[in-house]
Each structure stands twice: as C-alpha cells, then as structure tokens.
Amino acid sequence: xxxxxxxxxxxxxxxxxxxxxxxxxxxxxxxxxxxxxxxxxxxxxxxxxxxxxxxxxxxxxxxxxxxxxxxxxxxxxxxxxxxxxxxxxxxxxxxxxxxxxxxxxxxxxxxxxxxxxxxxxxxxxxxxxxxxxxxxxxxxxxxxxxxxxxxxxxxxxxxxxxxxxx
Length: 166
Hints:
Blueprint: E1 2-3, E2 16-20, H1 25-30, H2 41-49, H3 57-66, E3 69-73, E4 75-79, E5 89-93, H4 97-102, E6 107-111, H5 113-122, H6 124-127, E7 132-134, H7 146-164
Parallel strand pairs: 2-3, 2-6, 6-7
Antiparallel strand pairs: 1-4, 4-5
Helix pairs in contact: 2-7
C-alpha cells in the first residue's frame, strides 16, 4: 500500500483545482507533481499561464499559485504497479475539504479518465461538485499532441473562469 507523498498545492487565492489520480514513480521520487519528463502537464500549464516553462519545484509552485490554480490528486493511498493507472486498486481517497474550505475554488478539473472515474466514485458525493475531465497529459496518452492538449485545456479552464465571474 502506497501513501500519497505530496502535500496539496493551493492557497486562499486558488480558483481552479486540478486533480490527477496518483503520483507516478518519478513524481514520488522527486516529491512533486508531474515529475516524469515526458508528461506534458508543465508545458501545457506554462502556455496557459503565458509563462516560461518552469524547471524547479519553486518555479512550478509559484506559477501554479500566482495563476490561482490548486493541484492535488484524487487518491490518498492505493496499491499500484509502477505508474500505471490501470493497476490502481484498494483506493482511499484524499479529503478535499481542506482545499475547498480554504480556497475560492470555482472549478474542479481531473487530468484524465482514470482520475475522473476515481473522483466520481469516491469524492463527488462528498463535494457535490461535478469535475470536468481534461485529456490526460501523460505520455501514455500519445494520441493527443501538446498543441491539442493546450487548446482543450485552455478552452475548458477559461470557460470555467468566465462562467464563475457571472
């Protein structure tokens, strides 16, 4: 059984919560989100934020918080073989109350279909907030180019921000 090793990343200004499923082996090794060099998450987020690609954990943290995002994962603990979401079993979900009670979350997004399925199974009934699924930035989702991911992600996030502003 593996326990999630990374604390949620958010502050009181966070408006958009992005949830993955569970950290990859590489993310667990470095102790931060989306640590696999082939994962397109940081490239896509840098483009959405209009910033240079962050390389350090400090730069990534600052970009996320300065642009009013929050990051975490659906799963607190599970059994998983390597980094493969398809092998996840015996799930204990994270409790999102800490983030939702502190930040001004206007939209919840999940990075990929597995995160969506886990969120809907374990968290939706607790939060009552429907999560919007985004195509996975994982290198396993090779059918989506970085440009296509950027276009989809930015449109969905911008729409959520516009809808929440009235």
